Predict the structure of mitogen-activated protein kinase kinase.
Amino acid sequence: MRSEFSFTDDAGAEWSFDERAEIGGGGMGQVFTGTGEDGTAVAVKRVRLLHRAEKHERQRGREAEIVERLMRSGGDTTNLVLPLGYRFLDDDLLIVMPLADESLAKTLTRGPFGIDAGVDVVRQIALGLVQLETLKISHRDLKPGNVLRFGTTWKITDFGLSRDLAESTATYTLAGGGTLPYMAPELWDSPMSWSPKTDLYALGVLAFEVFTGRLPFNGPLERDLKRQHLHEAPPALTGVPSKIGRLVVRLLQKDPAHRHQNARAVVEVLDRYLESTRREQDPLADAAYAVERRLLEDQAAGSVAAATEERRADLRRQAVADLDDVLADAYDDLLAALPDLRIDQETRTVVMGGLRIVFETREPLHLSEHDDGRKAVLLGVVRRDAAQRAQATVYAHLSYGRVEEGRMGWTFTWPDPLEIDRQPLDAAAVLDIVRSAAEKFAARS
């Protein structure tokens, strides 16, 4: 039987592969080693197109469009495995790709990564998701077998389950429905609930595996995996810095609204960790990690899998989670400067001697049912917690809405009525607000 095949891709390049040199595969296709016309070693993936006959031509067109989009993307694709060429052959789609050194799945057979190496791997995978989001593509099957190493660079591959997010009527490409140990809770009862946040959940499972060498949920049966993903909290991450533990726990939240906004937010968390010169975690960081874990355990106990929450409620929960994240980072720096400071994370209160500074939130009086984030989703105020509310002093006004680059975020203004410029609320800004409050308190008559 014939085992060697040669073909010309749609751009006219010549490629060949041998069916006896299979290096991977699964329900969606097979991968073989191959060569280019100049002798370059490549990987050739053969995918069976399984749609019904009446949809066959349209499906072929959609596959070609997505492959060409990846090949011609002008943005940063450093962490994506881009096709070198493609060709339809009868009912098969042949995709030519660079040949990798090793998959993450193979690397993990030798054990978990150390902290620094693990952070690098997870960050590069998150960057790949950022690049996919830029292309309006959701991966839908992120797992170690679909992450490949080229030298020191990790890249996401196998977009066979990808959905074109720019097309509201787009079909799911190729075949399959994700890999069960990496499937987000919202997908078990609503398989069409795919979004970029389902990829973030899979990234959380993958990150747990990178740092521990094992999955958070092991089944072994499908019904066991469903129960675990929907209703059980993952095991505690031990031996990792608290900031990394908080990141993984948030990625594994049952409710999509409690996960990070997008992959860019995950990269920013990891960048802040890498920029930090203090690697030893103080009690506050451990407490913040415990708060995140308690939230996840409470959700698990209540069988939380709210994938159909209204957009408005989602944004408000996202706002609260983002505010707590900013404050958690600020608490680290506050305690480093003032070890005797008392902090109540639950009430978002900073106690400095006789001064109690409260960060509180409230909903706007009016919010359109079709709000797109241009208006404030949630408002807030930083005030002195006085015995009588009327005696409270306001130190800053907070607002959560759309900021630069189309992302949602917290901003603040000083209480001066002439101050109208909104500034980003980050850990440094929180420290400025607390310092200003202390100065005003000390200078009061």
